[in-house]
Amino acid sequence: MINENVQNGRSLQASLQEIKNELKEFVQTRFDILKNEMQQKITAIKAALPMAVIAMLLLATAWFLLTGAIVAAIALALGWPAAFAIVAGAYLIFGVLIGWLAYKEITAQSLKPERTLQVLKQDQIWIEQEAKSA
Fold this sequence. Notes:
Elements: H1 2-76, H2 81-108, H3 114-133
């Protein structure tokens, strides 16, 4: 009888060790999924950031050129202010376009870790099913 308990104790200990190792692997896998997904999102945001900076620069330039055109128009009542207005308008259009592209790129990348949450939801369903069958 003592021999059976020792065998059962070892078997229980081995089972607990196996469960511990599987749980550790399970958690590590989910962490790796989350880490990879967040790295992809950060990479996409880093790619859009230079476009946003360029857009801000072009919009600031457009503001200054528009201001210069208004001042020149008031000062000279036509002539070369039209050139300022055309250049300012071009910068404004390009700034808005690049800013809009950067905005679309950033908003397309949700910070919510979709794949990780999907895997965890599937895990939850599996655990619930296992608990019901046990």
